[in-house]
Amino acid sequence: MSDDHIIIFDTTLRDGEQSPGASMTKAEKIRIARMLEMMKVDVIEAGFPIASPGDFDAVRAIADIVKDSTICGLSRALDPDIERCAEALKGANSGRIHTFIATSPIHMKNKLNMEPEKVLEQAVRAVTKARNYTDDVEFSCEDAGRSEFEFLCRIIEAAINAGATTINIPDTVGYQIPHVFGDIVGNLIREIPNSDKAVFSVHCHNDLGLAVGNSLAAVMQGARQVECTINGLGERAGNASLEEIVMALRTRKDVFNIESGIDARHIVPTSRIVSSITGFPVQPNKAIVGANAFAHESGIHQDGVLKHRETYEIMRAQDVGWADNSIVLGKHSGRNAFRSRLADLNINLKTEEELNAAFSRFKDLADRKHDIFDEDLQMLVLQTRAGNEEAKYKLMASHVCSETGETPMATVTLKADGKEVKAEASGSGPVDAVFSAIKKATGETPALQLYSVNAITSGTDAQGEVTVRLEQEGRLIHGHGAHTDIVIASAKSYIDALNKLVSKQQRAHPQHDGV
């Protein structure tokens, strides 16, 4: 690999999915993987195959479908993990096994209960075994940010000698700060005799808000792979954000002089899809992909941008996928205009049946909403695809009565396994009443952990996007719904979550170790 190219390793489907409530179905993972491939992500970490049969199936499906990106599976430094990972990656055009073991004193003593020499021995054995299946093997020193430098040198040298082609230095707990972490990575590259035989990578967590800063500091010191996620999704405070890494390298090429192969025009659409599927809204002031990322309210700023864009904008909104004019369709728009705009948004409906279903939803929405925005179309297609998947419960009708000084009442009609069920309940508000009625109709009584409402677009006729998170028997599941009527959107999101709870497609939140 040339020294002026950076490998972008996306772990949204693995580490991102380890966010509580962010577990995805196989179909959802495939959808995101296709977007990452379209974005020209170099390596897609598709999952942790040993974690569950569902994760194995998802990694295998992505390996079979995605051909332009390397597909990676994670494994602990254990024979069954590596074998399961290799099996899942059999169909990959380009496959990578990513194996790891903890190297910090606190992890080796308190988690592994192993002496350093045994850890080194197991790491070498794992890399050697992985090389029996593929020439592309990545080795990670879990909690490298708190590991002893001399031990890191020894285990990394041994792993490279055993056949590791990528060496990952994770700041697993988000402990490091940029100048220190950069020095660690740079000194490892300089001190390890065979460091030239491997690509050095970093995987930084955001517990102190420094994941992107730490990653870029490591790049300055010679790291040539960055592990990151869309929207910075991930365990606890998240991971380094892919969009921020990519655009920092591109915008400040004068500092880094490094190129990525990412097609940045797909950043915003991918961000929206990940947010919709996981149920994790993007904060408005989030860099690059937040709704306010390119908004200017200050009169001085507005005046400057109108006179010369670069007075207050360091990159073009269009370059990362924000549309020049997102108001494109209305109730009089035809099927061809609808199909054309979906194509412009890189949304591919593979069958005529899927197109018809999406167009029907579009017409229904256009009757309720004057202008249809790109964000509306993306949500509409997601709902169409979700509606095509097998579901135990479906909302047929709802009626809510809420008056000042009176207890709100709701009546819902559902289809449960094809049979119509009706129930009525009261609540502290209209949404609470609807949720209570759904519980009565289904007999399902999960605990509501999160209820979040966001407007998809501007205006009083905007669709409301509702996210709920339910907990039942240790499982955290999110549901998602959108409608111009916020109560209906709420009911849809609750039923979506219930369907995931009872569906075998949705696996339990992964609790396995990871970098």
Automatic annotation (TrEMBL):
Q: Which residues form the Pyruvate carboxyltransferase domain?
A: 6-268
- InterPro entries annotated for this entry? 2-IPM_HCS-like (IPR050073), 2-isopropylmalate_synth_dimer (IPR013709), AIPM/Hcit_synth_CS (IPR002034), Aldolase_TIM (IPR013785), LeuA/HCS_post-cat (IPR054691), LeuA_allosteric_dom_sf (IPR036230), LeuA_bact_synth (IPR005671), PYR_CT (IPR000891)
A Pfam family this protein belongs to?
Answer: HCS_D2
In this chain, Mn(2+) is annotated as bound at 15, 203, 205, 239
Reaction(s) catalysed (UniProt annotation): 3-methyl-2-oxobutanoate + acetyl-CoA + H2O = (2S)-2-isopropylmalate + CoA + H(+)
**What EC number(s) has UniProt assigned to this enzyme?**
2.3.3.13
| Protein species of origin | uncultured Thiotrichaceae bacterium
Q: Does the record's keyword annotation contain Manganese?
A: yes
Q: What does this protein do, in the record's words? A: Catalyzes the condensation of the acetyl group of acetyl-CoA with 3-methyl-2-oxobutanoate (2-ketoisovalerate) to form 3-carboxy-3-hydroxy-4-methylpentanoate (2-isopropylmalate).
- Name of the top EC class for this enzyme: transferase
Tell me where on the tree of life, at the top rank, the source sits. Answer: Bacteria
Q: Which gene encodes it?
A: leuA
What are the entry keywords? Acyltransferase, Amino-acid biosynthesis, Branched-chain amino acid biosynthesis, Cytoplasm, Leucine biosynthesis, Manganese, Metal-binding, Transferase
Query: What are the GO MF terms of this UniProt record?
Result: 2-isopropylmalate synthase activity; acetyl-CoA C-acetyltransferase activity; manganese ion binding
What are the annotated GO cellular component locations? Answer: cytosol
Give the multimer and partner information: Homodimer.
Q: What is this protein called?
A: 2-isopropylmalate synthase
Question: What family does the entry list?
Answer: Belongs to the alpha-IPM synthase/homocitrate synthase family. LeuA type 1 subfamily.
Q: Where is this region: Regulatory domain?
A: 394-515
